[in-house]
Amino acid sequence: MLNNIVIRINRSTTSIVTKTRWASGTTILAGSSLSRKTYSIDAAYRDLRDIMRERGPADDVISKSNLDNNADHRISRSDPILENAAQDASSYTMKRPDLSLVPTCVEQISECVKYCYANDIPMVPVGARTGLEGGIHAMRGGVSFDMSQMKRLLQVNESDLDCHVEAGLSWRELNDQIRSTGLWFPVDPGADASLGGMASTSASGTNAVKYGTMRENVLGLEVVTRDGKVITTAGTKCRSKKSSAGLNLTNLFVGSEGTLGVISSVRLKLHALPSNMAVVTVAFPTVNEAVESVVQVMQCGLPVARIEFLDQPGVSACYQDSKLPNLDPNLPMLFIELHALTKSGLDDQVDILQDIFESQGASNFNWSSKQEERTQLWKARHNLHWSILKTKPGFANIDTDVCVPISRFPEMVAISHELIDKFGLDAPLMGHAGDGNFHSVILYDPKLPGEFEKAKQLGIEMGRVAIKLEGTVTGEHGVGRGKMDLIEEQFDDCTLETMYAIKLALDPKNLFNPDKVFKADNMGV
Hints:
This is D-lactate dehydrogenase (cytochrome). The protein is an alpha+beta fold.
């Protein structure tokens, strides 16, 4: 990579324009802020406060004095609020912003983004702060856009099975609001994540094996770009389930982790609530029998809605916290959910599962169609990450997120256990076995020197194994700040250069969530 650098200086900012020519011959012109702050926090606070005062929601009729007061409470530089804006579920050292904005409408986002970009101020979108990869950390300070007050359900089209929501609404809040329609949104990460954040990382959850990830369930996005323009990725009024028109901007922004713009609203697919459901729990003598059973279930074409794998330490943690009677804390287990149109169809699926599992030496096979028991099981599964943390009070954690083809899943699990034994750390496995995705919650004592580095290296080694097994280092959590090295191993140089070119075309100054996903040095900025 060869760079020619020109420094531009004006009254308010110092910026770099870098002409980058990669080894493949690709050339991109990118302007970037210097790593040191070149903006006045005091001036930014005053100017952004004025913007928030002037740009209220278009459908709100409130007095000027109330608008001013409202705006003053939606921009802050106080220590508690700035720390809260950077507090997520990761174990990385928190990096807080200089200012926190809490917009209530896309107009405010638009004007504030436009101002920040013109003044070389980094921007970090913040959702429900449930991420595990430090994606909301303000690595270069700047302004966080806290979307927690943009929670409106804008539209529900029951006949067409779709809806339009603001980015701050969570998936649980959406399902609560649409339950009376007989529809639901099935993408369910463990935490109560915001739908904008879920689109940002292409999140998934326990239902992905049947209903897909966010990428399959997002019909379109409203995104604010660097100059404050608001784009609709699928077309201004398009709600169709498929389209061959134009470039697929929706899939470009889904999974972009806030590095290309600020997602302000999301149009989603909805699904009919299943009429007949059952859950199954089953234990196996060894991990190998459990994961081989998963492969058999998927290859036989049984339409399971959920199939979750827990190794023995994972089951033990789940049992200690939930006390569910059907769990065997001494053995690895699978949690399964089945959906069917008829009761007889559900019974047939249960019989097929039981035959497969018995051939693998399964024990403690239990199933239930009772709503209460279903709810208890999936509550325990969604809480499992925190249940594991409770087993080691005072310990911190690093989470892996590997995903491999289903035929390589048993090998991935076996090698992961070998690595865990080699490193001598506690790291229970749990995951969405039906699509080859699992997590290892690597526990370490932050008070012991070198333990964080040891845990991080274990996660890196698992990621490298996933790459060798034709998989990915992250199936649903995103890259954030924790997996930037690994994606350079997953993709070849030409592919990475194409990604860099797209990033710099949309964000030539590298101000949208900088130092996430891609390293600035590798992009030449």
